[in-house]
Structure prediction request, 522 residues.
Amino acid sequence: MNDFLSVNLNAAGNRFNGFPSITDPMDSARVNVTLSRSGDPVPRINRDGRDFPMHSLFDPLKEGQKLTTTYPLKGMKIFFGLAGGYQIRPFLADSKILIIDPDGSLLKSLLTALDFHDLLSNSHVYLLCRPDHETLSLWLKELYNPLLDGNLQVIPHRAYREKETFSPYERMIRSILGEISSDCSTQKRLGRQWQRHIILNLSRVCRTPFTPDLLQGFDRAVITAAGPGLEGEMARLSRRSPGTFLLSVDTALPALLEKGIVPDGVITIDPQAIGYLHFMKDLPSSCRVFADWGAPLPPGIEESRIFWFSSPHPLCRYLRKKGRLPLREIETGGNVTQAALALIRHSSINEITLLGADFSYPEGKPYCRGSYFHSWHLIRGRRLCPCENSLLHFVLERSSLTESRETGTYTSPLLRQYEKNLGDYVANTGGRMKKEGQGKWTVNWSPLAEGFTDPGIPCRADELLDQYAEELNALTGTEGISNSSVSPTLIPLGYSFYDDEGEKALQKSLLHTLKIIKTRNS
Prediction:
């Protein structure tokens, strides 16, 4: 085996996706190496019968250094193509780097011909070979943090063109960045409320955590969302079989209670106080509440009837691990319908029906009748501005008219993303999801295979928060918060201070968190 290939593979370890192995084929005839006038080796790729140098034959180091006059040294960079690495090395010290290479055979030939150990052993360098959309999305969402990395720069390389096109990856990146931008906007809007509720709810979540035992005795489940499609299902819901567990999302709860239908449980994840409006009607004692750790406590309901689960929020993960908290993590996808489905998956139930999950505005209707949203507009209707006008105005503000004319259904980018996220979640967890009608879906999958490991005796809430506060106090007024173990717990809140960005935003997030901890009992 070539010494360079051995060195490069050892340097890479297991940190790269799609990385060529020893047994993978390579097209070494396409790559030759020549020395530049500066004495640095330059790979040459054979194209159309002639060798094409991938870097300057005079001084490839100087050529690579010129990129720093166009692109900032710090931040996140995506390089299209490894080539000889000279375009990447000037950014090693200050940037987080993702390299995308479309050709595994060429990549292996380069690794065989040149020494890249300084690149591949760097913990800030990542390389993907021929990634699909899902793989690229997972890596980019994990690596790129707009708060700390600022704008993301995509840097193409002149040697990769024609057959080795990067156009598909450019489209993927634009799509993924749109999702990241949407997520950042949500964190900017809700970050303070999440941080506050996670800290204030800590003592409660340990007392009554959600467990699958709460769903024992049921062989199927029905989840009701609050889309207009729910209206036509009310009669069937009132006649559901005894073995059916009826789980309502919070937005659909008032509509069910108005029809005299009492669900077995209701789930809530919204950290905003507006979520209280879903619980204004008296909740029968037989109905349990399943609440996200970051949601406010529903009013007028005994704490013993509220069962808590954790979201993937970094502060939740940090406190769960540090405090050995017995809470299950539910992948909500930012949507309460997906949260309900994920909750059911933790039980032995494998047959689920979704009702009212329209993910659209059929006939211009945003929600089913009886939801607080519909009732709010109804009581504020006037002769010159009836309820229907304000509801349609709400829909038109969020919908694409062009698309609505083509499909006959009003929709929005957010609703389409929710539907896609839900479908991806079911598919990625080995389930099958089928549309049965307007707002009606069936989902089948095997129950969650892995068991839940008891983390041991949990810390007391006050003790755990005091330990967290000590770690934050040690970082107050210092540089390098982004490199600390508590940095992830501050990032969602940091988007509330986005005008400052980076370390300044994290420092404000730190001080705000300390204030919440200090005043939690007042």
Remarks:
- The first strand starts at residue 31 and ends at 35.
- The first helix runs from residue 3 to 12.
- The mean pLDDT is 86.
